[in-house]
Design a protein that fits this description.
heterodimer; A: alpha/beta; six-stranded mixed beta sheet; four-stranded antiparallel beta sheet; 26% strand; globular; B: mainly alpha; MetI-like fold; flat
């Protein structure tokens, strides 16, 4: 029997801000190519879980492994110490993230937003970066907006550019942190369509995805596994059908009933 | 002397010094301002302390006293600079302190999300500063830096107090020989104003060019 090793492993992860414990000992694995949707009430720690993986915040205790390598720590003489920036830089190569509030670079055109990292980070030539960037922008359906500044885009368009900007770096792991929560309802669909294409239809289906969302129908449609998170712990997880049709814990039942009403 | 003769005499004598002092102390002030402003945001405590001390000292004492101190007191400690060098140094140091606060607050005003986006794209902190944070902050700080530039130009009139023959110095000399006080000082006001006009206009143009993305 072949055992597949997880691409991401959270090991007894806690995160606290002062007295506020946001994550209370998370053990959690994601397998290569898996699409995992993280659901749960606001303030339950979902976003923090993704931010730890993107190295935007440091865990209070515990370890995270990405492709078998420690993310936040290095072993020096058998002892675990906090990793140096150089190590984090090396580890981040395979991880990309899309934020709730897009965070496009406002002083750059759509094209330059997407070209920036391939040039400065990967050292790609301008010509090659432009080619790659245009490919990605086309993929998210904004090829007619190449030379426009973000301020002139709608929220949905901004988020699609942000997705292109993350994708052009060819990450093995993509984190979507509530990508549609800041959007007007009528703009949600276009962003979900793009994510869906990446997740299940396009050439990137071997990409591992962690999607934090409140769009239950969408989570059900694209995820291989749903994880329900509440008050800093994983309460329940399983296949979409299992979880949505047959929630076992009262907490998940209550949570879902709010969406079905 | 006719008004025109007074004007020519003023310009001939003092314009060069005023412009030289303005130009070089502006360059010094902007270099110091950026260095100290960014150092105050550094993760190294020692840099933050040094730049903080620099800013407090030079902002907290008067430019005129700084000029006097550098020109008259420092030589007693065995260090003597020429008057023009002292003028550039004092004005540069003084305005650098103000500029550093402008730089610091502009960089601080850039939302944290911009830095996070850079991290997510695996940019180094130097790359994100250079490519993302500073270009945005620069557009924010430009109007304030422009104000400082105009303020600096006018402050150069103080250098006449350390024997430098700038516009103001020549106005004083002319005044004591001709007693055309009203004419001379009116002309002096107008000259400073006319020099500051292209500066104001230039800054405005640059501002417009650097913030096309804000429309």
């Amino acid at each position: 029997m072949i055992t597949i090793k997880p691409i991401i492993r959270y090991n007894k992860i806690t995160k606290a801000y002062g007295d506020l414990k946001v994550l209370k000992g998370i053990d959690f694995e994601i397998y290569p190519g898996e699409k995992v949707a993280l659901i749960g009430p606001s303030g339950s720690g979902k976003t923090t879980l993704a931010r730890l993986l993107m190295t935007l915040e440091e865990p209070s205790s515990g370890t995270i492994e990405v492709e078998g390598k420690l993310l936040w720590h290095e072993k020096i003489n058998g002892k675990l110490v906090r990793a140096k920036e150089k190590h984090l830089h090396e580890m981040r190569k395979d991880i990309g993230m899309v934020f709730q509030h897009f965070y496009l670079f406002p002083h750059m055109t759509v094209l330059n937003n997407v070209m920036e990292a391939p040039i400065t980070v990967l050292g790609m030539s301008k010509k090659e970066a432009k080619k790659q960037a245009e490919l990605m922008i086309k993929k998210v359906g904004l090829i007619d907006k190449l030379n426009i500044y973000p301020v002139q885009l709608s929220g949905g368009q901004k988020q699609r550019v942000a997705i292109a900007r993350a994708l052009v770096m060819k990450p093995k792991i993509m984190l979507f942190d509530e990508p549609t929560s800041a959007l007007d309802p009528e703009l949600v669909g276009e962003v979900l369509d793009v994510i869906k294409e990446i997740a299940v239809e396009g050439n990137d289906t071997d990409m591992t995805m962690l999607l934090i969302t409140h769009e239950m129908d969408f989570a059900r449609e694209i995820a291989d596994r749903i994880v329900f998170f509440d008050e800093g712990v994983i309460v329940e997880q399983g296949s979409p059908d299992e979880l949505f049709d047959n929630p076992k814990t009262p907490r998940l039942q209550t949570f879902l009933s709010r969406f079905n009403s | 002397m006719s008004t025109f003769e007074l004007l020519i005499s003023l310009l001939k004598g003092g314009l060069k010094v005023t412009i030289i002092v303005t130009l070089f102390s502006t360059i010094l002030a902007f270099i110091l301002g950026f260095t100290a402003g960014l150092a105050r945001l550094s993760k190294y405590k020692i840099l933050r302390i040094i730049s903080g001390m620099y800013v407090e000292v030079f902002r907290g004492t008067s430019l005129l006293v700084q000029l006097f101190w550098l020109y008259f007191a420092l030589p007693l400690l065995g260090i003597k600079f020429s008057a023009i060098f002292t003028a550039i140094l004092a004005i540069g140091l003084n305005f650098g302190a103000y500029c550093s606060e402008i730089v610091r607050s502009a960089v601080n005003s850039i939302p944290q999300g911009q830095t996070e986006a850079c991290i997510a794209l695996n940019m180094t902190s130097f790359q994100s500063m250079r490519r993302v944070i500073i270009p945005q902050a620069f557009a924010t700080m430009l109007p304030n830096l422009g104000n400082q530039l105009i303020e600096l130009l006018k402050s150069t009139s103080l250098v006449s107090m350390i024997t430098l023959a700038d516009l103001t110095y020549h106005a004083n000399i002319l005044n004591s020989s001709t007693f055309e006080t009203t004419k001379i000082y009116s002309l002096l006001l107008i000259i400073y104003f006319v020099i500051s006009l292209p500066l104001t206009y230039g800054i405005k143009m640059l501002e417009r060019r650097l913030s096309v993305w804000r429309v």
